[in-house]
Amino acid sequence: MDRSAVDTKIRELAESFNKKGVTITENTTFANDLEFDSLTVMDFVAEIEDEFDIIISMNQQAEIENYGQLVDAVTKLQAD
């Protein structure tokens, strides 16, 4: 799956978590812009892992601060 397709799917998954209707860009942060708490992050990551049949390690999650980094990480994990 190419980056564009991954981006589209993650945007679909993010809709139910984006309670404030924030416009998501490559630089949108989960903690500040979307105001995700730790439980929301865990639920969102679980949905992504299920959808793409991947595992995002805790170390990887700690390094992902914005939406663009998430798309890049999922795209890379899909390719492996």
TrEMBL record:
Pfam family, one: PP-binding
Residue ranges of every copy of the Carrier domain listed in the record: 1-78
Lineage: Bacteria, Pseudomonadati, Pseudomonadota, Alphaproteobacteria, Sphingomonadales
Protein name from the UniProt record: Acyl carrier protein
